[in-house]
Amino acid sequence: MACAKVPLDELHVTEPFGPQGKERTLPALHPDRKEERCFLTYKPPPEDGTPVLVEEFLEHAQFISEDLEWLLALPHDKFWCQVVFDESLQRCLDSYLRHAPRGLDPSGLSSSPAVADMQRNIHRFVFMVFLRMATHKESKENFITPAVFAEIIYNNYLFDIPKILDLCVLFGKGNSQLLHKMIENIFTQQPSYYGDLNETIPSIIQVFDIILQKCGIQSENTGNSQPLKLNANKCLTAMAMPEEELADLVLYMCDTCTTIHSFLDTFPEACSTFKQHNFLNRLSSFYEMAVPDLEKAVKKRNFNKSLQEDMWRRISHSRKKMVEIAHLLLQHTCLQPILEGSENMVSYVEDLLQNFTAFLQEKRFLADYDEQFPIADDISLLQQAFPHLYPLLWSSGTLYDDFKRNKKGSNLPSFKLLLEKMTLGVVCTLSAGELESLLSSIRDLLPDLGEGFILACLEEYGYNSELVINNILEDKLSPSLDKLDKAMARPVKNELPSVLSTRSNVFDDDEFDVFNRDRLDMSRVWKGRRQGESVCATLNDKQHIEEQRARYQAYQIVVDEIPIANDPSGERDNAFGMDDYDDEYDDTYDTNQIGANDLDEEDELLNRRYEFSDYAHFRLFMMILCYFDQNEAVKKDHFLQDPAVLRERAEARRAAMQSRKGYRPPPASNVVGGPKGRGQTQEIILDRRRKEANKNRGANHSRRMMADRKRNKGMIPS
């Protein structure tokens, strides 16, 4: 039926089909190969143990148990066809994850042994189904290609982040190793789940904000990002909210904290994703603000005794889980890398100390954390990883002991200073004068020691002169200092190369590089504005005209003298078009000023300037025209003027013309007004009315009229 060592996604099977039993070949994963079976949804056991309800639960659960047992007995290909294409199966599994009783939930398991046995069977079968769904290779013959497996579980929603969280809560206890391998394989084969987890964490943080809001507490992290509602002052507090609402709130907090702890405990690789969202600080802040308020409400309000005990148990459980969540985050993001000797060990130590410093603002959370996970153990770990921190912790050990004895945090400022010093490590923050003072004070007591050895001791012991002197006198120096020569001189500091020798600039080796050139052309260097020639000298300099004279000699058309050669035939040269003297020429009107007193237009003169018949008059008239044309060319400015200046001049001319006509421009319109709810002035109301009445004059109105106008002018084809 199946070929060996072929993945299920590439496998094809041949099966009989139809009443006649004809064979057909189908892919191994095909909807037609799914068995017709209806899986029932899960219902939790009855809490009161009524016989009728118990019998109904047992009968209903028996069907679910038999169906799941049948599913697990299917071969590899049939199992995956049922899982992928049977929607009733997914509804059955989802209903169990949603309604199965958690650790603190009341259930009727203790009322009837049969109910407890049936619940255990269903619990085991559901876990086995999810475990098989998370396995892409069951044997050498039965397996799925990893890439196809990743697409199947992700695209068909066989697993998602809420399902994985519920799986950790329900099956994490007693199956943590097996569940870790299962979730690890899911995240390894399909890395998209890391992105889904990254998008889920803000929703988890929002749960904390909702609880604080329900209790009437304003979170410091949310700030004033959202405007306050008008009825914000009527928000109920934990002391005033209804009993059922308070119980639901406590249940909501308990379920959230338990789920997050189970997930991080089962799959520690997710701690780094939670760290990216600053989850630890948000958790400690929520603990400090919400837990005391809820505890006070449960203690002082008059509830039913059983309900009060249940809420108090859930609050205590939530407190414990929140502290354990903080420890898991610190353990896997800071402490574990330090123990493993990671490369960036210093950064992990700084992260740990910064987290402890952030906890100082949350006094109650820090006290509860220290009670469950002593900070002294973490500090001891730091001493082993960084021996140079030991003197600082040793000299400040009294502060930590006082902090342990006084949980109310009276010594928190000193403890905070201790952590800040630890964060600084051995970095010297002393000035040169202070360092010299420490050296001289130690050498006054121990003159045989060299300055180099004293500096090494100060660096080793955090620049604490008293601790250095005490360890030298009692011969308790660290092994690294014992190997040094006690008469070691102070190391000579190597002078840094000059900046000029190591500089690099785009102007290196140019003609003005004074660092690489000995001589410069000082004629090209001046201070301030360069002193050039005077304006008169520049205008009188006609050298450029003389340079261009020879160039334009070839284009000369004016001939001053005309050489006339005697022709042997008696005829004169008429090459230049000169006519012989005509004695019959009428010179009666040569002395009259023709048209001198007429008010002729310029265009008329231009039209008649070629009407002269006398060549001499023509030459004279052309010279006059050239003179006036040159003057006009001098006066005319061909430079492109500033458009802004032109607009100002046009606006001035328009205003002058309107003032002469008696036109008064309308006043400036203001339709925006002030903020809503504060009233508007009468001018703004009138402007808004004027805009509403005249808005059809412009903008996008009267489009049909303008379209008709364009069509009439032939701009739009009709």
TrEMBL record:
Domain spans labelled CUE: 434-477
Basic and acidic residues bias (residue ranges): 685-695
GO terms, biological process: regulation of DNA-templated transcription
Region Disordered, annotated ranges: 656-718
Segments passing through the bilayer: none
Pfam family, one: CUE
GO molecular function: ubiquitin binding
SMART domains, A to Z: CUE
InterPro entries per record: ASCC2 (IPR052586), ASCC2_CUE (IPR041800), CUE (IPR003892), UBA-like_sf (IPR009060)
Gene3D superfamilies tied to this protein: DNA helicase RuvA subunit, C-terminal domain
Protein name (Swiss-Prot/TrEMBL): Activating signal cointegrator 1 complex subunit 2
